[in-house]
Write a structure and sequence with these properties.
Helices cover about 50% and strands about 10% of the residues. It is α+β, with helices and mostly antiparallel strands. The chain is globular and about 60 Å long. The two termini are about 30 Å apart.
Length: about 350
């Protein structure tokens, strides 16, 4: 049993009574999800070596050149990464997960990870969708499934395609969609027909599958995106001016601060002091990141974990990563750096 004044098992650094102890009934579910998130985040750090990074970099260049007319650069990066991990080099993922299974104590976590050992491609018809749940049917096998809905909005589209994993948290027919899963709009039925034929014929070439989209234009990502309105845009414009006028900040710093500001404004959170602290961190620390979105996501998680950003926004690592359209595994480094800075 965790004492009220003991550190919370979620790893936030807070006392249990001020963290998950506030809602004991929801503790197990929350702790399981957060433990899963931490394990997934540790995959790249533990499993990748210099050779893996070099191979992935070459892959990214090839996929960017091949798919640039169908998807955004960010989505191509995600697709290239996840197809590499889950489909084309599955031994990396399976070795890592099997290792985790030998040291874990919580059976719920073991059950989830065990089911994630063999991710698969799926082309599915969307039967219904909401912010809580999406019901779908695998077109190839005709099996029905459910998965979590998108917290920010629903999407216009009748089909999904990408890599999925079973998820016992949603029941016997539960699924988890990876970040690279895409919605296919209603007017792109030719894509669906071509993909269905390839999957039925046992196609295993990942790049070839995604090149099916080339002749039919862009599609919508399944990851949650921000819902914009005039009030939010107006606030964001004022914030941007304030940031740019406040000091001679580097462009990367300004972009990162604007992204965090956009997030806290959208969820109506008072985080002005945190923004000042984040500014100090960015000015005093050499941050080696390609995307401001990655640092912004890490900052939001750090701010929430330390209580500098009030409750009321997105709390799960995977959802924050999806909001900023980055991979969950890429943000832990910056979350930890900013958390250390906040603790000083």
């Amino acid at each position: 049993m965790v004492g009220r004044n003991d550190p919370c098992p979620c790893g936030s650094g807070k006392k249990y009574k001020k963290c998950h102890g506030k809602n004991a009934l929801g503790d197990i579910t929350t702790l399981v999800s957060e433990e899963i998130d931490r394990i997934v985040e540790g995959f790249v750090k533990e499993s990748f070596n210099t050779s893996s990074y070099q191979e992935l970099e070459k892959r990214n260049h090839l996929w960017q050149d091949s798919l640039q007319h169908a998807f955004t650069d960010k989505l191509i990066d995600t697709i290239a990464m996840e197809t590499y991990i889950y489909i084309d080099r599955p031994e990396l993922w399976q070795t890592y997960i099997n290792k985790q299974l030998t040291v874990l104590n919580r059976q719920q976590v073991k059950d989830i990870l065990q089911s994630w050992l063999k991710p698969v491609y799926m082309l599915a018809k969307v039967d219904s969708q909401s912010s809580e749940v999406i019901a779908l049917t695998d077109i190839v096998t005709n099996k029905s499934y459910v998965m979590n809905g998108t917290p920010a909005k629903t999407f216009s589209g009748s089909w999904l395609f990408g890599i999925f994993m079973p998820d016992v948290r949603k029941g016997e027919n539960g699924l988890t969609a990876t970040s690279s899963v895409v919605f296919i709009p209603d007017d792109k039925e030719t894509i669906v027909q071509a993909l269905c034929e390839k999957l039925q014929n046992g196609y295993t070439d990942s790049l070839d599958l995604y090149q099916t989209f080339i002749e039919n234009g862009k599609v919508d990502t399944a990851a949650p995106k921000e819902v914009e309105n005039d009030a939010v845009k107006e606030v964001e414009s004022e914030v941007a001016v304030t940031i740019e006028a406040s000091a001679d900040l580097a462009p990367f710093t300004i972009e990162t601060l604007e992204l965090v500001n956009k997030y806290v404004n959208e969820y109506k959170l008072d985080a002005s002091e945190f923004i000042e602290t984040l500014t100090s961190f960015l000015e005093s620390t050499t941050v080696k990141a390609k995307k401001a979105e990655t640092v912004a996501a890490g900052a939001v998680l750090a701010g929430q974990a330390n209580g500098n950003i009030p409750e009321g926004g997105i709390s799960k690592v995977k959802d924050v990563a999806a909001y900023f359209e980055v991979s969950a595994s890429s943000i832990s480094k910056y979350r930890d750096q900013i958390s250390e800075f906040l603790a000083k």
